[in-house]
Amino acid sequence: MFRAFLVEDEEPARLRVKKLLSNYREEIEIVGEADHGKTAISEIERLQPEVVFLDIQLPDMTGFLVLEKLSYQPLVIFTTGYEAFAIQAFETCSVDYLVKPFDADRFGKAIQKLRRFGMKKQNIDYKKLQQLLAAQKAAAPTFSLPVKTRGRIILVEYEDIVYLKAEDKYVRVFTKNERNYLSEQSLAKMEVRLPDDFIRVHRSYIINRSYIGEIRKFFKGKLILILKDKGQTSITTGSTFAGAVRARLGF
Amino acid sequence: MKRWMIYLLVLVFTHVYYFAIMNAVSKQFWDSEKEETSAHYFSPNWNNPRTNDIFMVKDTLGVIRYYKIVDGVKDGVLSLKAGKYPFHTALKERIFLKKLSFELMNSSELYADSTQQYSLTEFLRLKENVYLTRGFGRAPTKSSYNPSYVKYIEYMNLVISIVSFFIIWFFGFVNSYLSGFTRFSEKILLVIFSVIVTYFWSKDFLSFLYNPSAYFLTYTRGVIYAFILLYLIKALNRKLIKKWSFSNQEAARFLVIVAGGSIISVIGAYFQMSITNLFGINLLIRELNSVDALGFHIFPFHTQFWLVLATGNFLNNFRKHFFQLRRKASAFKYARTQELEFKSELETLQAKINPHFLYNSLNSIASLAQSDPQKTENMAIALSKFYKEKTNRKERIWSTVSEELEMLQTYLSIEKIRFGDRLEVIVHRDETLGDEKLPRFLLQPLIENAIKYGYRSEYNRIVVKIKIERQKGNLIFRIFDSGPPFSEELYTGYGIRSVQKKLKLFYPDHHKMAFINHPEKQVFIQIKL
């Protein structure tokens, strides 16, 4: 007999799981439910169920964080809305995963799996699963740079950015339509986020490679880059960056 | 201010200024000799010679003499001053003729020694013996030639030329067409040189008044010298670093500037002449130029300067354009396909919906089917209505504020079933708004996001506020939610990106989108009506 706990923020989804579980009444007993992470943690700690049906996207935190905060590790069946690409991760690292919406057959299989795991008392590395998912999420491409300026965040699309220039602590972002935005973030921080098209050419300059119009040689291996913006901005590469820039530009 | 507007402004100003001066100068001449008829003034009559008339005589040997009448006819006798000058080339002649006329006006002493007495009949016989005769003009008396007045013009001209130069420089003409001069010290040198050259030009202003062809040559030489000097300095500067020679590109640029500038100046001169003729101003200048068979005419130096800059700039751009033509053509093609791709993408954007939303909704319907048939029905109907809106009117790009809000209500009714009492949505709408156009489904992804990230654990609630208002011809949307503040990292998903893309496509320069945390967390969108 398993004592089970439901963590699910949407009421209909919770009802769905309850209804499906009613078919296994003699095996699984529902001891409680929660609609967000905070109550889930306290309730699970109080009730100490063996099984948790856990939604990954909770309103106040992720399901992983709930697991992390618990003093023990229950068996977990994830209910997720993740796309198919993430399924591999769950396959290897959890009792089972249920992609919404799920039918009775699929739910039955999950229960079967639960029986097997329950007997083995096998430990599952949720941390690893979380890392895998985080890696997948981070790899998703971004398209714009958030520029925080005077309490506002404005999104500037990468393809519109001609170059970025450090000014004291701040960074000025210059776009192709001759606008510029002062960002309170540091250039180094931005460099991490910006895609491969952007090249650090100077201590205080990052340029968008697709806006290079002309390259002139300068002394000591430095280059003068003339950009294709309206003002034909010319930027001389910094001496420490010259080699890297040459390599990035292919000569 | 657009660049062409500056061009136009300088052009108009220089011309107006030029006409004003010419008018003033010629008026002064006219006024000083009011009793004279204009025809006589500029075309001395052999049969009726008067004091200060100048006659040009060229004999069969090609020797040209000038006769200036020092004293009018007294008792049938004339006093003449004569000059004798051989000329080698027609060009030189023209230049020198005018220079001479200028000198004649200013220094009567020049011919003091060669004063001769002729009787009127002897004088008229002179005419018969020569190969070509022509009335050349009449030297003004010293009193009518007012040096201080001319000086004033000279200074004005200097000021104007420097000012127009700085305007031109300031607006980046020099910068862009002399993009070889990238360093600050070079730019400063350029300024200093231009000021010096301009100053010498303006010193030459008077000779230009009476001797435009010479002026034109001086000017052209001046331009060439200035550029040679500047490039020499640049080359020297380089030499200190590396080498002497110009790069091919710089040489080409140099040629284009000088040749282009000179050509356009000549063309401009003809153009200018036809205009002045049209307006009938500058009779004085025209008279003085009457010997000028080629029609080299005056073009104010600042206009010429401007023209050289403009032409150089234009030709340089053209050259660049020429070399980049193929690249540009392909870029255009690329942009075109991009646009088409974008449009089709937009259509799919309109039709597509966050798959999670569909999964979740269907899951809700499945869950509710037995426990709450009424809710299930409502949800299924709302969902179908919503999807109908999404897919059926695919070809429609625009929608109105009312339609959009109606669609949002449908969408919200689904979300309300999913989240129950936890979700609260407040809509504030400016009552006057209704028929204003906006891209379809612009707001829905933002509302979806607000619901997704709007949870506030203290109240165990999601509060979303939608505010639509009009402000000075702009439509403003604010979508508030009760969730934690936007992070500086702000990783944006598909929804925000689609909104961003739509705004960029439909309102390329008339939109704003900002994520604001204070005083209230909100997404702010402003579009032009």
Outline:
By secondary structure, chain A is an alpha/beta fold. Chain A has helices at about 10-20, 35-45, 65-70, 85-95, 105-120, 125-140, 185-195, 240-250, and strands spanning about 1-5, 30-35, 50-55, 75-80, 95-100, 145-150, 150-155, 160-165, 170-175, 180-185, 200, 205-210, 210-215, 225, 235. Chain B is rod-shaped.
Structure description:
The complex is a heterodimer of chains A (251) and B (529). In chain A, helix 3 (63-69) links the parallel strand 3 (51-55) and strand 4. Chain A is 33% helix and 32% strand. Chain A is an alpha/beta fold and 251 residues long. Chain A has helices spanning 11-21, 37-47, 63-69, 87-93, 104-120, 126-139, 187-193, 242-249, and strands spanning 2-7, 28-34, 51-55, 75-80, 96-99, 144-149, 152-157, 161-167, 170-175, 180-183, 198-202, 205-208, 212-217, 223-227, 234-236. A five-stranded parallel β-sheet of chain A has the order 2-1-3-4-5, sandwiched between helices. Chain A has eight helices and 15 strands. The mean pLDDT of chain A is 81. In chain A, helix 2 (37-47) packs parallel to helix 3 (63-69) and helix 4 (87-93) runs antiparallel to helix 6 (126-139). The two termini of chain B are 24 Å apart. Chain B is α+β, with helices and mostly antiparallel strands. Chain B has 18 helices and 13 strands. In chain B, helix 7 runs antiparallel to helix 9 (212-241). Mean pLDDT of chain B is 62; it is low at 28-43, 84-113, 129-147, 171-182, 202-221, 238-248 and 273-304. Chain B is rod-shaped, with a radius of gyration of 40 Å. In chain B, the strands form three sheets. In chain B, strands 7, 9, 10, 11, 12 and 13 form a six-stranded mixed β-sheet that branches. Chain B has a five-stranded antiparallel β-sheet with strand order 4-3-2-1-5. The longest helix of chain B is centred in the middle third of the chain and has 32 residues, at 248-279. At the A-B interface, helix 1, strand 6 and strand 7 of A face helix 14, helix 16, helix 18 and strand 12 of B.
